[in-house]
Amino acid sequence: MNTKRPTLEDIASVAGVSRATVSLVVRQSPLVAEHTRLKVEKVMADLDYVRDIGAARLRNNSSRTVGVIVPNLVNSFFTEFLTGVEQVMREQDRVVLLANSEDDPRRQDEILQRFRGHGVDGMILCPAAGTDAALPGRMQRWGLPMVQALREVGAQETDYAGADYVAGVGLAMQHLTALGHRRIAFLSVRAMTSAKAERLKGFSMALAKSGAIDAGIIEADLTWEGAALAANAVLALPARPTAVLCFNDVLAAGLMLGLRRADRQPGREMAVVGLDDLPLAELTYPPMTSVAMCPARIGTEAARLLTRRLAEPGRPIERFIQFPTLMVRESSGTKIV
Amino acid sequence: MNTKRPTLEDIASVAGVSRATVSLVVRQSPLVAEHTRLKVEKVMADLDYVRDIGAARLRNNSSRTVGVIVPNLVNSFFTEFLTGVEQVMREQDRVVLLANSEDDPRRQDEILQRFRGHGVDGMILCPAAGTDAALPGRMQRWGLPMVQALREVGAQETDYAGADYVAGVGLAMQHLTALGHRRIAFLSVRAMTSAKAERLKGFSMALAKSGAIDAGIIEADLTWEGAALAANAVLALPARPTAVLCFNDVLAAGLMLGLRRADRQPGREMAVVGLDDLPLAELTYPPMTSVAMCPARIGTEAARLLTRRLAEPGRPIERFIQFPTLMVRESSGTKIV
DNA sequence: TCTGCGTTTTAGATCGTTCTAAGTTGCAGG
DNA sequence: CCTGCAACTTAGAACGATCTAAAACGCAGA
């Protein structure tokens, strides 16, 4: 019943060759003669041979395994990213070890140790909020190649794939000011990450450039419920904003819900703009103006950066920055007086 | 720079004991004397020892690795499920190998072989549409324990965790008929899975029980765009349905969008009910009546079923069926005449 | 001092693969 | 007939852990 998997030895003895020859066949070496190869492949197929990659790694030090750590698996920003990573890895015959740090640096450390123990060839890390800036250096000392994605800690010591959040916020702000908005609020999150820092930077840069007024920065939990609750705080801002730019689409959707609960029409009485352009942006009411960051594309690029680094460890640091696109829908309303 | 990780041998020589003793310490064996244990643990900490699980597996045949295959990583039904699985596995010090079959049985087979090669201890499989019913038997012959989740193929030969889709559809239909609807349509998907079969079964059972009329079954692509396009087909149904039950929330959201594009108010001119109660159900307009299936809970139960099976391979087949809950919001409208 | 027994420790084989270095072939050229 | 070389093939030692069986140690009792 629970029959053991055949090994190289088994194949070898049936095919009447040595273990080493079978190994060469498995690895598609050109050293082996055509007729031997065919004979061995036949036996492998008959016995349903599956190469033990763990044992192989022990000898040649390549597990064809990469670790991916994300802070969240519910937000589709991260799952689209993950889809991109997984797809490229699958094409390259690699396997993805997945874990969710829940934005907790301690958990993230545990996961890293565990992945290290499993012999991953490299890591794609979306660092948890509060990750020690020394982590990239530590991983380098471990000899564990890493690509950071979507967020970044440390002084640009590793490859990185992300989006230009500053520019993204700029596009959104430009859109709002062009519509005539002068008092703009920012609905942010509590957890501090490079992604948040960049967005805030983009916000103040855009304010400076356009001469619009910072109507206040509200912080909410990163859930739509949190954002819905924050609607009242936004409405209570003394500067009376006419538009709110949101950290991401989840918050924007929640905010619109909260506004409606407070009997304000998002898009008419208050312009709302999201960031990320998740699929849900088209399903909200009114459909949401947002800034597309293409997380799936960032995922494929992160995966490619990692495989390049694995192939050539000494190569210079590389960065992929996705330029965002503004998607105008209805939540930002029309030109105001 | 790229210093190799220390091995048991390294620890042993520094601590002045044998490799075997260090191995016992690593595995927290009670056989080792207190003072030796402390000494060895000190050295392990100093040298930053990480146990090589791959090498361990080679000898003792437990990789503490499980494979998870889902058909889709964008639909949050599956990612919530995945969150549940990952969490339990993390608590049990196991690692998750993730892959996306994209609902393609060929791809799924490739992934299974790859995971087999990586020596996974077991699998949690959400079988792709069109999966051969013989797969569970084949995996059993491989000696690869598996739990099916959310969907199922074969004759209940494996552990299974899922939701009671028949009952879920029943709840939704009961709600609609109680509101006075007599002509009800079903917006379905093209791909055939056990989940679809159960829902259709629930639909006809509920029709029979309530005496309502099957106003037609429309099939759409499993995207909200597909559902939006299907809105016209729904409106063109000769039976003129007053309510539509949808395969899941993604389709329901898309359908509502399509209805609005065709100038029909979902919830007023056409009742719409979804299944799954994804987070987006509260964000649509009007908020969506749906049936909660608690995929995260199903995920944790699937993980527990697998670890139980791994601990005790001979135990009888077990099934976990989550009972669904109706979440009434506004898209189903109010009582009609 | 020696025996016996329980507690700790260890040498050496082993898991399934890959690598190294050396071994076979077969055949053309001297 | 021998030599040299290309084209294959292979024995045996790794890799880093665990397991088995046995050895070393400590100590009480004779």
TrEMBL record, chains A, B:
One Gene Ontology term of the molecular function aspect? DNA-binding transcription factor activity
Keyword Mitochondrion listed? The answer is no
Sorted UniProt keywords: DNA-binding, Transcription, Transcription regulation
The domain of life for this entry's organism is Bacteria
Q: Where is the HTH lacI-type domain?
A: 6-60
Name of protein: LacI family DNA-binding transcriptional regulator
Query: Which lineage do the record's taxonomy fields give for this organism?
Result: Bacteria, Pseudomonadati, Pseudomonadota, Alphaproteobacteria, Rhodobacterales
